[in-house]
From TrEMBL:
It comes from Zymomonas mobilis subsp. pomaceae (strain ATCC 29192 / DSM 22645 / JCM 10191 / CCUG 17912 / NBRC 13757 / NCIMB 11200 / NRRL B-4491 / Barker I). InterPro entries: GalU_uridylyltTrfase_bac/arc, NTP_transferase_dom, Nucleotide-diphossugar_trans. This is UTP--glucose-1-phosphate uridylyltransferase. Gene3D superfamilies: Spore Coat Polysaccharide Biosynthesis Protein SpsA, Chain A. Residues 11-269 form the Nucleotidyl transferase domain. GO terms for biological process: UDP-alpha-D-glucose metabolic process.
């Protein structure tokens, strides 16, 4: 079984839900406390052993590329002033030379299309996909680590799921679970954003390990919900050909593609921080909700 070494980060979306903040700035660069949203997904991927990071970007996303580069002037001036602690803060945004690729999705044709744009960089290896809008928080066992562990035992395709309210199933890709062993379900079907009759309340929440054969299915340009090339539809075709499992994520999910979810992520992560947590807690305590 080939190890999972590569990850795709689809970051081409225009971030219209956050206008005007995202008029001149990628939404992935909006800070959750003091780190841009994209940093959380990158940290998670590296914790899971990912070596090559592939960002599928679009126009106006240059700031992401600059962020993961060396900031020579800034670093030189911090060095000169002896501000070593501040230099340390930049460590996680430095990616290993040659390990990050940036390619463009020229048109917004869907998540499946974004993933397909990376086909030549993926080649013939299994790969991960992380949707940075989904901030999945469990420092003890990050979601992608759980997927890699399951993949190393079961092989095939593995996705992260969480239970959502019945009334929200139409917003997600939903799995049809089969046999269950602990936190891991075999998957016998997948539906993208079911209008009615969702097969379960288990929603895919933006972490995937996929076999490279999915690229040929995505190339067929089949349009699904919203007239887009849906990753879920192509994944559904892999069921039966390869093992397909879903891991329940045991942690907190912040949907940072949504304004309320984004604010909640900021509050929740700020409360955990020893430097600012007490002040934020004190402020919240004195609000009359
Ligand atoms: C995408 C996927 C969907 C998944 C969701 C998680 O949908 O297509 O299957 O459940 O991400 O956030 P989107 O939210 O981009 O419409």
């Amino acid at each position: 079984m080939k190890p999972v070494r590569k990850a795709i980060f689809p970051v081409a979306g225009q971030g219209t839900r956050f206008l005007p903040a995202t008029k001149a700035m990628p939404k992935e660069m909006l800070p959750v406390v003091d780190r841009p949203l994209i940093q959380y997904a990158v940290d998670e991927a590296r914790a899971a052993g990912i070596e090559e990071l592939i960002f599928v970007t679009g126009r106006g996303k240059q700031a992401i590329e600059d962020y993961f580069d060396i900031a020579y002037e800034l670093e030189a001036s911090l060095h000169a002033k002896g501000k070593i602690a501040m230099l340390d803060l930049l460590a996680d945004s430095r990616l290993e030379p040659g390990r990050a690729c940036f390619i463009r999705q020229q048109e917004p044709l869907g998540l499946g299309h974004a993933v397909w744009c990376a086909r030549d960089l993926i080649g013939n290896e299994p790969f991960a996909v992380l949707l940075p809008d989904e901030l999945l928080w469990n420092p003890k066992q990050p979601s992608l680590c759980q997927l890699v562990e399951t993949y190393n035992i079961k092989g095939g395709n593995v996705v992260t799921v969480m239970e959502v309210p019945e009334a929200h199933t139409h917003r997600y890709g939903i799995i049809d679970p089969d046999k269950t062993e602990g936190d891991v379900h075999e998957v016998k079907g997948l539906v993208e954003k079911p209008e009615t009759n969702a097969p379960s309340r288990l929603a895919m929440v933006g972490r995937y390990i996929l076999q490279p054969e999915i690229m040929d299915l995505l190339a067929e340009d089949n349009r699904g919900v919203g007239g887009e090339i849906q990753l879920t539809d192509a994944m559904a075709q892999l069921i039966g050909q390869y093992p397909f499992h879903a891991c329940r994520f045991d942690g907190i999910r912040h949907d940072c593609g949504d304004k309320a979810g984004f604010i909640q992520a900021n509050v929740a992560l700020a409360l955990e921080r020893p430097d600012i947590g007490p002040a934020v807690r004190e402020y919240l305590k004195h609000q009359s909700f």
